[in-house]
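A common beginner's mistake is to predict each chain separately and then try to dock the pieces by hand. The better habit, illustrated here, is to supply every component at once so that their relative placement is modeled jointly.
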Amino acid sequence: MFRSIAFALLASVAPVACRQAESSRHVDTALRDDFGASIRIPATPPQRIVSLNPATTEILFAIGAGPRVVGRSQYDEFLKPARAVPNLGPALRPNVEAILGAHPDLVLLHAGAENEAAAGRLRQAGIAVVALRIDRIEQFERDARLIGRLTRDSVPATILVDTIAATLARVRAATAGMPRPTVFMHAWERPLIAIGGGSFLNQLVDIAGARNVYEDLPQPSAVVTLEDVIRRNPDYVMVSPAAAPALRSSERWQALPAVRAGRLLIYDTLVVGRPSVTLGEGAVSLARLLHPGSVH
Amino acid sequence: MIDFRDVAVRYPNAEQDALSGVSFTAARGSITAVVGPNGSGKSTLVRALIGRMAVSRGSIQLDGQPVDEIPRHIRAQRIAFVTQREELAFPVLVNEYVALGRFPRLGLWRVADEQDRLAIGKAMAEAGIESLRSRRLDALSGGEWQRVRLARALAQGGDALVLDEPTAFLDVAHEMGVFELLDRLARGGRAVMLVSHQLNLVARFAATLVLLRQGAVVATGSPGEVMQATTLERVYDWPLVVTNDPLVGAPALVPLRARPTD
Amino acid sequence: MSPWRWLLLVLLLFAACVAGTVIGTIRLPLSVIWDGVRGVGDPNSMMVIRNLRLPRVSLAVLVGAGLGVSGAALQGTMRNPLAEPYLLGVSGGAAVGAVMATSLGIGAALLPLAAFVGAIVAVLAAFFVAHAAGSRGDPRVLLMAGVVVGAFANAAIMVLLANAEPNAVRNALWWMMGSVGEATWSQTGWLALYLLIGGGALVVVGREIDVLALGEEAAAGLGLDVDTAIRRVFLVASLVAAATVAAAGLVGFVGLVVPHIVRAAGIRRHRALLIGSALAGATLVVCADLLGRVLRPPAELPLGAVTALIGVPFFLAKLRRLT
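With all components supplied together, the output reads:
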């Protein structure tokens, strides 16, 4: 009988003992990630990082933490340096088992509602999880610096952020005095989705010297109707290469003067598609589309 | 007019014939009643007649012509069939309903002409339902509804009328009314054939009885000939007597109470 | 049937079409709209009218007419007031076709074709299942076979969506909620052809449906080849329904409710009922599309969502009549 009591006491003490050992592996900060969870910086620099978000993966490689990335999402396929990194599955509702199998000490997730459960389970397993939602340029700047701090690459991170900021400032200055055309940014066809005021794309277009006709919408994107787009009568339609042919050949879209006049601007999705390392190039490419010859 | 010649019918996947060796004739100008206990094959006989079931042996003939050689719509022009029960999901008016009786005679585009309209009027007159012409079907009493169905059958314009349990749910007055009508129609020259479990009632009106048991004909003939106590007891498997009241004018089957077991 | 009632039906449809053309996110004065319809005047407005509003209203008319005719024909043939055009697995099959197309990333232009093929496959599968079960056109067996096919289709959709990219899922869900917002004139043309042929065929056999409505035995007694007649109606009605689904996605309740409304107006014989249901169905869908456009500007409520709302008062009314 005494043996079982002793065993029970030991069993109840063990988790506490483990947690104490864990907390010595992390340093709490006053920072919170985009799920509201407090961010704990690993006591030792993370050597096995899993990044399930193209934006953060790109940042990691740009600040020199690439060799320490041991897992990525299937969406990061298009990032050349990330191709060699093992694909751990989807970025939304991630495969927790696959992540655990990579034995990470830091996991970066997209802070969407579908990932809350996974984040919870990874934290329970004692792994440092940071969930980030990067919609706007300032969020990118904050998060790039944060990631640099987490991986002990603060210097490269600061250089990255500052370089991009400088490019953005240069583009803004170059297009400052020019007439600002209005633009409709076509994100998806069925249903018709427009980029709204809450998106980094909106900011890039603004920097590049134009105005998004849907800048009044607070969300990053929203479902709209074609008649409403016609009502706002944009000077240009900005569209991805994949969607452009459909727009050109569609009877309905002919009702929009910009399409009828052929004023379609096709953006390079690889450069402009994410609020990350390519923000500077993105602004430059948009400025070249909108104001040819203004920026080098 | 309707001739059953050694007809046998078997349901698919059945081990036994539902009807075997059935032979009788339903002649013009009289009422022929097919009677028998439940499961004796009465309904099967009707189904075979209207072509819903295939005849495996023998043949059913209409004025000498095998029924399955007659195109459906021609057959419907010559024999009118009144089912046991009809439940219309969507009520129509009486005159629209009777008009459906002309369907077998309508051409490709199914448009009614003056001849059709006359026939409909005549049918309604014969069945005595002219006053009901604009009533909705679901607003009729049982007896009225049955007369309306008869009118539709009459509108088909044929010589033969086949009815399956025509008075099953009717009270005495309506029962007698329907049968008096059938009697009039038979006297007018039609061949009226009906299937009924109400032996006593049909015995009053039918010139010929066809008594079925387990798919075979046990007896054919006038009610007096067929309704013998020994035969009936065997067929209905119940103790009974056959009475014959001169006022009634036809034999009647009276089942006896079950004898208490000692 | 009194000519005044027909006139009323036609006028209602006309009024709905006018409303559908005149009302929209962009406010256009009536004179500009009339110019646009005729093809003169300001090219911008003309484009909006001719490329957006008119195709949309036309497609709504055709979809509503097709669903109305199909529903009325099936209700009469099955003698069931709750029968509706998607009975034989049409909606399930079409959805599977559409979801497969979006999952495989097939272009948007082929989506209607995929949906149509899916619907036809489902209908044929239902016939096959019924035949294998030994039926000879018995509507109840066909109905059950349709339920079986529909259940299989639902399972297939879930499997496909579970493994699909989020964008494909969004595409598929949006399609399933039904819309005439992407109407093009060529789509409208195809649907008009199907409706003319299919709907026309149903009207021609309208008298047969009157006879079928009496019941199978009575119909056989009147000389109708019942099994063939039922199969014919099922096939043609399902074809028309499949064509509407291919063009506009899933639009529920129209085929169910419209025949009841037309019957309540006193139209009973099926030829007239089918034509009346076409007119009333067209009016209903045009109005539903209009409602979807004005209820929550600048966004649109999907057509299927608005028509689903019709189901509520309809069933409530039926319930009250039962008790």
